[in-house]
Amino acid sequence: xxxxxxxxxxxxxALLRKPDWRASPGDHAFLEDLSRRAFRYxxxxxxxxxGSVLDRALSGAAGQTRRVxxxxxxxxxxxxxxxxxxxxxxxxxxxxxxxxxxxxxxxNRAENVHGWFYHFVDFETGERQWRCEVSSIDTALLLAxxxxxxxxxxxxxxxxxxxTQIYKRVDFRWMLNGHRYxxxxxxxPETGFLLHRWDRYCELMxxxxxxxxxxxxxxxxxxxxxxxxxxxRYGQYSYVSGAPPLFTHQYxxxxxxxxxxxxxxxxxxxxxxxxxxxxxxxxxxxxxxxRRFPGYTSHIWGVTASDSRRGYIAWGGPPADPRIxxxxxxxxxxxxxxxxxxxxxxxxxxxxxQFGDRIYGRYGFADAFHPRDAWTNPDVLGIDQGIILLxxxxxxxxxxxxxxxxxxxxxxxxxxxxxxxxxxxxxxG
Length: 429
Description:
By secondary structure, the chain is α+β, with helices and mostly antiparallel strands. Helices cover 42% and strands 11% of the residues. The chain has one domain (2-421): Glycosyltransferase. The strands form 8 sheets. A 3-stranded antiparallel sheet has the order 6-7-8. Strands 1-16 form a two-stranded antiparallel ribbon. The longest helix is centred in the first third of the chain and has 20 residues, at 25-44. It is globular.
């Protein structure tokens, strides 16, 4: 019991709470420009007829030849439409039309298996690509966008009905594959269900909330406490963490507002503060790596799953990934804007100021770059631009959190899982 109490003490530790942060005029201007560029990706790199968003594209608009979309990127893209409409960045009628077309495609034309969608599809035809899996987590990220845009356009009966239809059709019980509580990673027509389950902390929280709140195929609320919560410690920082990449602490929070919630389980975990802590620990980790990679500084830091010189790598830390080579991934800090703006905003502004001529373009930041040599990834990735955009909007207005929580199924799921209102605190930790 002593070790358990020691581990839990950090959740109320004043040491880990950030100092008050207020955006300067320069911060406001930077976040507006960054967000508009990120939105541009989702508008330009999607099919007008299906709304499917390309998995990746060149950082400049010219020369695009790819056709493979990601359903996760499309979930971010649907949310981007709501943000753009709210902020007046684009023609309101065209944004509404794109939202309706996208929902109609996934409701009536896209191939699905028990309501679940293939991870990668042709962005015009919806045809499965690369013999990929029917993905539970990527379908969940798509559903998050579906429900968000459905709430934003709740005054449009067709859009609202399509969003409900897509969510209601997903058979979460089927994805349990015989287990009482734990969902499978996915399914393939050639081999059946994948071997792994969502059984330890990562980006899984939004998947379980959607499943627990399902209007037609809900799973037991006990599923929330069935997955493991591994304790991690780095220096002064103690927090729950599974896989090393920082995005695992960001994706669920892009839509779910955990700021005033605390588990009613054995650990009483405050998941928002957990992600604040993970972000601060990650920055400290990068600064310690500066002994080997002097390109990391107090403002130039961040490694999470991204492209590298050797292709896509799910790198991160702590603990250290031996594949880390000193590259910087802007969406590490960008995806944590909603948690720790006092360290993340200066980091992104420094990256733009120091390296902007080669890493900051039409769609915002390149996916990754090396600060000590000339390597810059020529691509941007939809999910990485998406987490920057949603995190920035939650920092600026909290609107994504607001729209998503307007869904009654989500409120019911939070209550059923025992996520209780805790004492009010600063909006950003």
